[in-house]
C-alpha cells in the first residue's frame, strides 16, 4: 500500500504537431482547423475516401493480444452499419496480422492496414485520425494515449493502468479527454466507439475534447518533478 506509480513522459520535441516534419500541415490547439489537411492527406495515403465528415479511426500498436487487437477487430466488425473508416499500423503476431487483413477484405474501401513498423506514418495517423483505439488488456503506463491527446486524436481506451490514469472519460464536465470502457470485451469496446461516433458530429463538443487533451502536460518535466517529490519524501521519512 506504499508503492507509488509515476507515469512515463513524452519527448515533447519529437512529438509536437506544431513542428512535426512528418506532417503535411502543422497545427496547435488554437489552429485545429489546420488539422483537417492532415486527415485528408492520411485518407489519400491509405487509399480511403477523402471525406472530412466520416470519422477516421486509427490504431498504432504492436499486434499482440495484450494490446487488445482482437477486441478492436471484433468491435469494428459489429459496427459495420455505422459511418467510419479505420487505418491500422503495426506488426507482430501472425494470427492477428491475418485477422487484420481479413477485416480489410471484409470492409473494402473502409479499412486499410500497414503491417509494418513505420515511424513517419505513425506521426501522420496521430495527426490525421479522429479516434485512436487503445483496448489494452493491461498497460502499466503507456505512451500511445499521451501522443494521441497531444495531437488532438481522441483516445478510446480500456480503463486499466496508465490509460485510466491519463484519460478522463467523456461527460459534459470540463475535464474529459476521451472515452473509456471497463470490460476487456468486444461488446464493451463497441459501446465506447459508438459513444464517440455519436458525439463526433457535435463539432464544438468534439473540439473541446481535442483541446483539453492537447492541454494536458505529459512532459518528462512533470514526471521528473514527481520523482523529485518522492525522493524528498523518502529522505524526510
Residue-averaged pLDDT, rounded?
Answer: 96
Q: Quick one: how many beta strands?
A: 6
Q: What characterizes the major β-sheet?
A: 6 strands, parallel
Strand content: 5-15%
Structural class: alpha/beta
Helix content: 40-55%
What's the tally of helices? Answer: 9
Describe the global form. Answer: globular
Low-confidence stretches: none
- With strands numbered from the N-terminus, the spatial order across the biggest sheet is 3-2-1-4-5-6
Rounded to an integer, what's the Rg over CA atoms? 18 Å
- What string gives the helices and strands in order? HEHEHEHEHEHEHHH
**How far apart are the first and last residues' alpha carbons, in Å?**
16 Å
Describe the model:
- With 237 residues, the chain is an alpha/beta fold.
- It contains 9 helices and 6 strands, in the order H-E-H-E-H-E-H-E-H-E-H-E-H-H-H.
- Helix 1 (36-45) packs across helix 4, helix 2 crosses helix 7 (186-199) and helix 5 (144-150) packs across helix 8 (203-215).
- The longest helix has 17 residues, at 220-236.
- The radius of gyration is 18 Å and the shape is globular.
List the helices and strands and how they pair.
Elements: H1 36-45, E1 56-60, H2 69-78, E2 85-89, H3 94-106, E3 111-114, H4 119-128, E4 131-134, H5 144-150, E5 154-158, H6 161-166, E6 179-181, H7 186-199, H8 203-215, H9 220-236
Parallel strand pairs: 1-2, 1-4, 2-3, 4-5, 5-6
Helix pairs in contact: 1-4, 2-3, 2-7, 5-8
Amino acid at each position: 500500500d506504499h508503492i507509488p506509480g509515476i507515469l512515463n513522459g513524452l519527448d515533447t520535441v519529437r512529438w509536437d504537431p506544431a513542428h512535426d516534419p512528418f506532417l503535411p500541415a502543422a497545427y496547435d490547439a488554437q489552429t485545429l482547423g489546420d488539422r483537417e489537411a492532415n486527415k485528408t492527406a492520411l485518407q489519400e495515403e491509405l487509399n480511403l475516401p477523402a471525406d472530412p465528415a466520416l470519422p477516421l479511426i486509427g490504431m498504432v500498436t504492436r499486434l499482440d493480444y495484450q494490446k487488445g487487437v482482437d477486441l478492436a477487430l471484433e468491435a469494428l466488425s459489429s459496427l459495420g452499419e455505422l459511418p467510419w473508416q479505420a487505418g491500422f499500423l503495426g506488426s507482430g503476431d501472425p494470427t492477428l496480422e491475418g485477422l487484420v487483413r481479413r477485416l480489410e477484405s471484409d470492409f473494402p474501401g473502409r479499412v486499410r492496414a500497414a503491417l509494418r513498423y513505420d515511424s513517419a506514418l505513425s506521426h501522420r495517423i496521430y495527426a490525421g485520425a479522429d479516434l485512436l483505439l487503445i483496448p489494452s488488456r493491461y498497460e502499466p503506463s503507456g505512451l500511445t494515449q499521451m501522443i494521441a491527446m497531444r495531437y488532438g486524436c481522441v483516445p478510446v481506451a480500456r480503463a486499466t493502468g496508465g490509460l485510466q490514469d491519463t484519460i478522463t472519460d467523456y461527460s459534459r464536465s470540463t475535464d474529459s479527454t476521451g472515452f473509456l470502457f471497463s470490460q476487456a470485451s468486444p461488446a464493451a469496446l463497441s459501446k465506447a466507439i459508438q459513444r464517440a461516433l455519436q458525439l463526433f458530429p457535435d463539432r464544438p463538443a468534439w473540439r473541446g475534447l481535442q483541446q483539453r487533451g492537447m492541454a494536458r502536460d505529459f512532459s518528462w518535466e512533470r514526471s521528473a518533478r514527481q520523482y523529485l517529490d518522492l525522493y524528498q519524501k523518502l529522505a524526510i521519512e
